[in-house]
Amino acid sequence: MTAKAKPRQTGPSDQARAGLRALRRAARRAREIARMHGTPIYVMKGGKVVALKP
What we know:
- The chain is of the alpha+beta class and about 55 residues long.
- The protein has one domain (about 15-50).
- Helices cover about 45% and strands about 20% of the residues.
- A two-stranded antiparallel ribbon has the order 1-2.
- The chain is elongated and about 65 Å long.
- The N and C termini lie far apart (about 60 Å).
């Protein structure tokens, strides 16, 4: 019997990294727009939805 080698784990794919960058960019823009209009941003903190003033 031969031992089967485990596949090596690599970091996130280029597509996953691009998706995370896009989410961060969208969040930054949402905070900017909320600040312009004086509206709160809703986020999850501790498993609950809370409103934050931008």
